[in-house]
C-alpha cells in the first residue's frame, strides 16, 4: 500500500499542476519530517495567485515565498509553467457498510488519485451506541486504514437529551459538525427536539449538517406512484420531487435564521432550493451550502436510459436549467463548497431489477474524478476563476469553525 506522501509526489507528474496537502488528519504521520521544495510554480489560493516557491516539511506547508533555499537532503521539484494548488478537501464522503463498498483504505486511495488530500466522512452511531463511542471507534479505523487525511462528522438519531448533552465533548474533541436527515419519517414528530439539538450545537460551536428532503412529500409521492403501478426507476425523480427539497431546505433556512445556529445544507440540487438558501443568507443567517458533481455534470434525461439506475441519488437528477444555476452559484459565492457524497456500489447492485421507487440504492462513485471534472468543466469550459476553484474545494474543519464564527 502506498503512503500518503508517495501518492502526493506521484501527482507532481500528472495533470496541469501539483496538489499540496496539509496536516489535518487523525491518520498516521511520516516517521521523519522530510522536506520538499516546489520551485517557480504559479501558486493558487482562494485569496489570490502569485509566482512563488512552496516548502513542505513533513506533512505541513511550512513556507511560501520567492527563491526559497532548500535544506540539506530536500527534494526539489521544478514546477515552472504549472499550477501549484492546495490538495482538495472533500467534506462529504461515505466510507462505511450500507453506503457503498469503499472503506477508508480504498476510499483514501481514490481520493489521492483524484488530487483530494483530505476527506470528511460520517461516524454514525448505531442503535445503543453513544456518539462519543462511534467517534472513538472511527478514529481508530482512520489510524489503521486511511492514507489520506480524514476528519469525522458526528451522526446519530433521534435527537435525545443524551445526544445534546454529549455535544460539548464532541466539539472539544475536535469534531465541530453533526449531521441530521430530514427525509426520516419521524422528523415531524421530533422537530421540537431537533431545534433543541441545533441550539445545543450552536452553543457548543458545532455546525449542523442537514440532508434536505421533506419526508411527508417523498412518502406521498412514492405512494401515488406505487398505486398507479409506476414503480420503475424511470419514475424515480417523481418519487422525490423538487417540492420535497424546497420544503425541507426552506425549513432549515428558516431555522438557521431564527436560531442563528450555523447550518450546512448538503448536496443542494435545484435552483429553487438554492434560492431559499440565498434569501436566508441575505438576511444574515449563518447558512453554508454544498452541491455535488452529480447535479453539475448530469441531468434528469439520464434516468430514461437503460442504465438509468446507475444515476440514482438523493435528491434525484434535475433538469439542465438547475445545473446551470448551480454552476452560477459556485462562481458567485451562493454555493460554498463542492462535496462528492461518494457512496459507490458495483454496477450489478445498482442495476438489480428488484430495485424500484420504494426500494432504492442511492449513491455513486465521485471521489477520484470530482476535481479533474470540476477543473475541466468549470475552469476550462465555464471560466470559473482559479481562486473560486480552490475556495470551493478547500472547506476543512478549520473552515467549518470559521463558518461558525461568521468569518467564512
List keywords for this structure.
14 strands; disordered C terminus; alpha/beta; 408 residues; 2 domains; globular; Urease, subunit C, domain 1; eight-stranded parallel sheet; TIM Barrel
Gist?
The protein is α/β, with parallel strands linked by helices. The protein has helices spanning 4-10, 104-113, 131-145, 161-172, 187-204, 215-227, 236-239, 242-259, 271-282, 293-297, 320-332, 347-350, 370-381, 386-391, 397-404; strands spanning 17-20, 35-45, 48-57, 60-65, 75-78, 83-86, 88-93, 116-124, 149-155, 177-181, 207-211, 263-265, 287-291, 337-338.
Describe the structure.
The chain folds into two domains: 4-85, Urease, subunit C, domain 1 (Roll), CATH 2.30.40; 88-404, TIM Barrel (Alpha-Beta Barrel), CATH 3.20.20.140. Helix 8 (242-259) packs parallel to helix 9. The chain contains 15 helices and 14 strands. With 408 residues, it is of the alpha/beta class. The protein has helices spanning 4-10, 104-113, 131-145, 161-172, 187-204, 215-227, 236-239, 242-259, 271-282, 293-297, 320-332, 347-350, 370-381, 386-391, 397-404; strands spanning 17-20, 35-45, 48-57, 60-65, 75-78, 83-86, 88-93, 116-124, 149-155, 177-181, 207-211, 263-265, 287-291, 337-338. Residues 1-16, 22-30 and 402-408 have low confidence and may be disordered. The strands form two sheets. The protein has an eight-stranded parallel β-sheet with strand order 7-8-9-10-11-12-13-14.
